[in-house]
């Protein structure tokens, strides 16, 4: 970890939120960070959110990348996975294809884990409030989580689901502990070539919080600049 990148001495945990288009990744991320639901929030770009949260009475700087389904040019965003310390895989219980995507993503992550890099993962079945439109049973989600060996929860981002907050915090805690043991991908960590364009509605900033929304292309540029000029530049909305 480069000290010049850090705005504080608290540990930093990087989380990737991954899933098919329209499963609720942006809504989930904003819900966790702000406790608010932005139903009309539309996204056509990857965004990185940064906020300091308290875990086990200690501050932790959390970075969450919400990978937009629209900008993904391949089925599995390997560079973002390399960047991440932990992953949330999301599908919608109303969308069978999104469950298949989550299954493949978990299998890919498992291969990475088998290769020696420990990446804590949590599986979430979103839109539990739409049970009447369900095409994926809870049992299928539970079995998938058990097969991969990761926690599984059905949640509703639209509702104030406490399971969602608990799932995030368990993942953050596990990831933080994992990082304490060893940092993975120390050489290959990079943002990669991530596409950026403006979101139509920036997410709300929580009262007393420090959410910073970064276009990842800007972050990538800033890293290049840092390497060349020891210069920090982070775009915020
Ligand atoms: N009913 C219901 N709708 C939800 C829930 N979570 C998200 N949505 C809706 O699902 C749609 C997609 O949500 P997004 O957060 O934009 O989904 P996304 O996965 O980030 O989509 P992309 O960025 O396009 O990949 C929006 O209309 C949300 O309001 C939920 O728990 N219940």
Polypeptide structure, described:
This protein is an alpha/beta fold and 237 residues long. The protein is 34% helix and 19% strand. It is built from six helices and seven strands, in the order E-H-E-E-H-E-H-E-H-E-H-E-H. Strands 6-5-4-1-3-2-7 form a seven-stranded mixed β-sheet, with helices on both faces. Helix 4 links the parallel strand 5 (121-126) and strand 6 (152-154). The longest helix has 20 residues, at 162-181. The protein is globular, with a radius of gyration of 17 Å. Mean pLDDT is 74; it is low at 1-5, 183-209 and 221-237. It binds guanosine-5'-triphosphate.
Percent helix range: 25-40%
Number of helices: 6
End-to-end Cα distance:
25 Å
Shape: globular
Please provide the count of β strands. Answer: 7
Described by strand count, sense and barrel closure, the largest sheet is: 7 strands, mixed
Structural class, from helix and strand content?
alpha/beta
Low-confidence stretches are 1-5, 183-209, 221-237
Which small compounds were modeled alongside the protein?
A: guanosine-5'-triphosphate
Radius of gyration: 17 Å
> What is the H-and-E element order?
EHEEHEHEHEHEH
Share of β-strand residues: 15-25%
Instruction: Quote the average pLDDT.
Output: 74
Largest beta sheet: strand ordering: 6-5-4-1-3-2-7
């Amino acid at each position: 970890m480069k000290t010049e990148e850090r705005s504080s001495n608290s540990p930093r945990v990087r989380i990737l939120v991954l899933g098919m288009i329209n499963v609720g990744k942006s809504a989930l991320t904003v819900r966790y960070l702000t406790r608010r639901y932005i139903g009309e929030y539309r996204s056509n770009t990857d965004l990185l959110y940064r906020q300091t949260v308290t875990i086990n009475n200690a501050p932790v700087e959390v970075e969450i990348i919400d990978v937009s389904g629209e900008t993904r040019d391949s089925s599995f965003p390997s560079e973002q996975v390399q960047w991440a310390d932990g992953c949330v895989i999301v599908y919608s219980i109303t969308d069978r294809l999104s469950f298949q995507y989550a299954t493949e993503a978990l299998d890919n992550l498992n291969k990475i884990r088998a290769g020696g890099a420990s990446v804590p993962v949590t599986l979430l079945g979103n839109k539990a409030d739409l049970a009447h439109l369900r095409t994926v049973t809870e049992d299928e989600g539970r079995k998938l989580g058990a097969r991969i060996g990761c926690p599984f929860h059905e949640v509703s981002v639209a509702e104030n689901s406490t399971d969602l907050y608990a799932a995030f915090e368990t993942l953050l805690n596990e990831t933080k502990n994992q990082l304490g043991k060893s940092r993975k991908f120390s050489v290959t960590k990079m943002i990669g070539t991530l596409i950026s364009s403006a979101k139509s509605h920036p997410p709300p900033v929580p009262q007393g919080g420090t959410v910073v929304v970064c276009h990842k292309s800007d972050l990538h540029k800033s890293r290049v600049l840092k390497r060349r000029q020891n210069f920090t530049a982070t775009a915020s909305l």
